[in-house]
C-alpha cells in the first residue's frame, strides 16, 4: 500500500468518526418525541373538519374527542381521568379514552 493510499484511508476513517460524532450530538440535542395524542390533536385540528365542509363538528363523538385532546394536555393524572370519564359520558364510542383510563389507573 502506498503512502497516498494510507493517507486517504486515515482521512476517510477520521471523516467517518467525525460524522458519527455529529450524529450522536444531534441525537442528544434533539427534542423528545411528543406524545402521539398531541400529534393526533394537531392533525385533527388541521384536517378534522374537512369532511364536515369546514364547520366544527357537533356530534357527541367529536365533542368527546375534543375533550379528550384537552385531557392529554393536563399535567395532573387525576384531572386527565376525570376528563376521560366526562368524555365517555358524552360518547361511549370514544374508545381511545378507555385506553387512557387504563394507563392512569392501576
Structure, explained:
By secondary structure, the protein is mostly helical. The protein folds into two domains: 1-30; 36-104, no CATH class. The chain has helices at 3-29, 36-47, 60-72, 77-90, 96-104. The longest helix has 27 residues, at 3-29. It is rod-shaped. The mean pLDDT is 76.
Percent range for helical residues?
over 70%
Number of strands: 0
> Which structural class do the helices and strands define?
mainly alpha
User: Averaging pLDDT over every residue, what do you get?
Assistant: 76
Q: Sum up the overall morphology in one term.
A: rod-shaped
What radius of gyration results from the CA coordinates?
25 Å
- Percent strand: under 5%
Distance between the termini: 66 Å
Low-confidence region ranges:
none
Number of helix segments?
5
Largest sheet: none
Order of helices and strands: HHHHH
How many domains? The number is 2
Amino acid at each position: 500500500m502506498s503512502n497516498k493510499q494510507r493517507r486517504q484511508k486515515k482521512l476517510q476513517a477520521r471523516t467517518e468518526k467525525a460524522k458519527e460524532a455529529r450524529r450522536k450530538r444531534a441525537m442528544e440535542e434533539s427534542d423528545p418525541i411528543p406524545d402521539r395524542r398531541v400529534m393526533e390533536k394537531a392533525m385533527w385540528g388541521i384536517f378534522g373538519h374537512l369532511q364536515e365542509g369546514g364547520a366544527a363538528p357537533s356530534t357527541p363523538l367529536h365533542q368527546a374527542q375534543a375533550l379528550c385532546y384537552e385531557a392529554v394536555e393536563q399535567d395532573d393524572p387525576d384531572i386527565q381521568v376525570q376528563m376521560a370519564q366526562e368524555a365517555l359520558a358524552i360518547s361511549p364510542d370514544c374508545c381511545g379514552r378507555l385506553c387512557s383510563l387504563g394507563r392512569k389507573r392501576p
